[in-house]
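Design request, tokens follow.
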């Protein structure tokens, strides 16, 4: 699906923001998403090479030489990290980030894995498993899903989405990482073209310190940070049918003073702590899964109702909205 340029800039910004991709434009032009799954079908494959020819200098010549080559080196497949029982959490997170980095950033202009934020967590974890099998280059949103999957086995590590909107030379850019919290310290996992816009060691005392670290990195690239969006803690249950809460707090950085921003981030920290004490809905038992069957079998299939999600916009409470998701209706739970 080509992200079109029809409509106002604001409408395109919001669409891109909802999808969570790293930039409004990749390489100066809209990018494609592979919606046909893997292996890539012929139409998507040819479209990708045509796109490469358009977005890169000498792209056609380079692409033709690569496709005609018969002696291309075999690309090593990174191994999913394993640990000794005595390995500390910071070292485990570093190993996970090393694995994500070894997959490499996707510069093709075609995102290989389709990530729909409205999908339940169990569906997104299936996509993460596929990422480990295929070992293809990824973008930032894919890295967040992969980071969640690889940290599910670390119950002492809380995870939350942390996304940014920045501005440079009149254009808006979007990026997302996976915030992590453990042992009273904050850090981040992720993927970016820029080394200091992805991994952050588990060394920051507060969420304020973590956000300021990213803001400083943006300043180093002459970007002005406009907006920060922070989600809630994510369940460690890989079979959970909950949706990830991506935007519990939406902070307009350019409209808030430093003190106001600090208070908002501290408030969000308290909100996340409160969620830890709330029990998460259990995954369906085997008997219940068998009784439910596939939602695709007929009109009598049960319809899942999505829980209310409360989002705070720069300190102001928004009205509760009930969300429904097509993915919740058509997705069959698999274990």
């Amino acid at each position: 699906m080509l992200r079109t340029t029809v409509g106002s800039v604001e409408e395109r910004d919001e669409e891109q923001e909802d999808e969570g991709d790293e930039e409004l434009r990749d390489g100066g032009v809209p990018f494609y998403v592979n919606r046909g799954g893997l292996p890539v079908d012929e139409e998507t494959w040819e479209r990708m090479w045509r796109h490469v020819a358009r977005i890169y200098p000498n792209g056609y010549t380079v692409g033709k030489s690569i496709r005609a080559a018969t002696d291309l080196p075999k690309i090593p497949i990174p191994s999913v990290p394993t640990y000794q029982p005595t390995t500390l959490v910071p070292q485990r997170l570093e190993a996970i980030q090393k694995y994500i980095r070894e997959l490499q950033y996707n510069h093709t202009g075609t995102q290989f894995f389709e990530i729909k934020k409205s999908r339940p967590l169990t569906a997104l974890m299936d996509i993460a498993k596929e990422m480990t099998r295929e070992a293809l280059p990824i973008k930032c949103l894919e890295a967040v899903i992969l980071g969640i999957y690889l940290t599910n086995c670390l119950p002492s590590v809380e995870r939350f989405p942390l996304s940014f909107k920045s501005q440079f030379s009149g254009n808006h850019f979007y990026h997302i990482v996976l915030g992590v919290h453990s042992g009273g310290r904050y850090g981040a996992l992720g993927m970016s073209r820029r080394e200091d816009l992805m991994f952050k060691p588990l060394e920051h005392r507060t969420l304020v310190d973590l956000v300021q670290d990213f803001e400083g990195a943006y300043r180093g690239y002459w970007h002005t940070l406009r907006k920060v969006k922070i989600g809630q803690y994510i369940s460690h249950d890989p079979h959970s049918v909950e949706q990830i809460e991506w935007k519990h707090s939406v902070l307009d950085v350019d409209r808030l003073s430093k003190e106001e921003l600090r208070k908002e981030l501290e408030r969000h920290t308290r909100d996340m702590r409160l969620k830890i004490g709330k029990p998460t809905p259990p995954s369906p038992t085997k008997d219940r899964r068998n009784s439910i069957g596939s939602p695709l079998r007929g009109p009598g299939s049960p319809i899942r109702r999505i829980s209310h999600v409360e989002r705070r916009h720069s300190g102001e409470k928004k009205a509760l909205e009930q969300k429904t998701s097509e993915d919740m209706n058509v997705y069959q739970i698999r274990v």
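Comment from the thread starter after seeing the answer: thanks! Residues 1-24, 285-310, 317-335 have pLDDT under 50 and may be disordered.
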